[in-house]
Protein 1
Amino acid sequence: MRHLFSALFFACLLSGATLFSCRLAEQKHTPHILLITGGHEYEVEAFDRMLSELPVTYDKVAHPYAYPLLKDSEIAKYDAVLLYDMPKEIPEEAQNDFITMLRKGKGLVVLHHAFCSYDFWPEYTRIAGGRYHHYPWTKAGVEQPPSSFRHGVTFDVRVADPTHPVTQGIRDFRITDETYGGTEILPGVHPLLSTDEPTNGPLVAWSHTYENSRVVTFTLGHDSLSWTHPAFVSILSRSLCWVAESNRE
Ligand SMILES: [Zn+2]
């Protein structure tokens, strides 16, 4: 199955990023995604336009209406979840539903400001493979200042693993986007995209497994400057397709 999926990616690469299509090998359908927003403003129309061109179908829900959809009976309709939200807190019941969903292998993509969510839910660090800290934090016993952001930075992004299905065939690229500096990135994650940009941490995207789910955290994506960048669109498409493969429902 893994070979089949790799072959699919390769075939899509030959046909170009815009023609990239995603069909889940086991489920034999196009991934159906639950997009969760809320807690942070964004250009809704332009973001929706970009998503509508991806090789997936999706439903969008904003907080406070998102958490009921994480329950077993509702989330079973979806192959993966795309977070583009930024709430500070999450009720305990929703925490449990979130983790149960990931135990069942539901794929997860944490996009841009969704990396900055849930200041008071430590488990979210393990789910996202890191954390944007709004408050001082401690690393190896040493207090660190809060993380920082800067808008409109033009910087170089390198492909850290050219063999991974998410980055296969993607070349190093230059993009103008918001950077996140002084963030925490867990040591066990698999680097996908890296940068030397001093206002950003060393990684721009990584993957890892949480419970039984594939997770990709991709910190680019503040506005249409990145949403119209072919590398961004390609990486987001491939991330959604790749994490959806871990869904077993
Ligand atoms: Zn932003």
Note: Confidence is low (pLDDT under 50) at residues 1-19.
Protein 2
Amino acid sequence: MMRFIILIGFAFLCSCGQETKQEAIVEKEVPIKYDMYVPSEMANLMNEMYNYKAELKSDILSGTVPTEFPEQFLKIHTAELSDFKDRTEAFEAVSKAFIEAEQRLFDSTATQSLETRFNTAVNLCISCHNMGCTGPIPRIQKLLIK
Ligand code: HEC
């Protein structure tokens, strides 16, 4: 039972915990598991999306209009999650809303500004993370265009 609890704590820390706290706690409580951590397909996709959005933000700020929807984002519908995480109905609903918001960035007939549409998509990253993966939120918030 104890082992089970530690494993859950570990899976949570690696993908969703606050990065600064993560190492200290892991070192103290589960030093062996640390070496065994392999990021899930979803965690890799998330980091890819993060980097893409950070680049897109600086492009938008320098006046470049994005032209091509990043097809790899669609993997959010199928990517494997870390153990102990489920694709709930709410998860599916937010994924869908997020992808639609991303697609609107490439809609040349949109009436909202590119900045507004960009921030709508980032806020949907945050909405999903608010459902139980809160660790990365402070980092994601930095993507918002002020
Ligand atoms: C529909 C829900 C959902 C949306 C939308 C979403 N995320 Fe995530 N995110 C998750 C989940 C769940 C995990 C944990 C993945 C795992 O452990 O398998 C995660 C993990 C992460 C991580 C940590 C990855 C790691 O190395 O462990 C980052 C960073 C992240 N997301 C950033 C983002 C950004 C940036 C966006 C928007 C561009 C975004 N997320 C949109 C659900 C979501």
Note: The helical segments are 2-16, 19-29, 31-36, 41-61, 89-104, 114-130, 137-141.
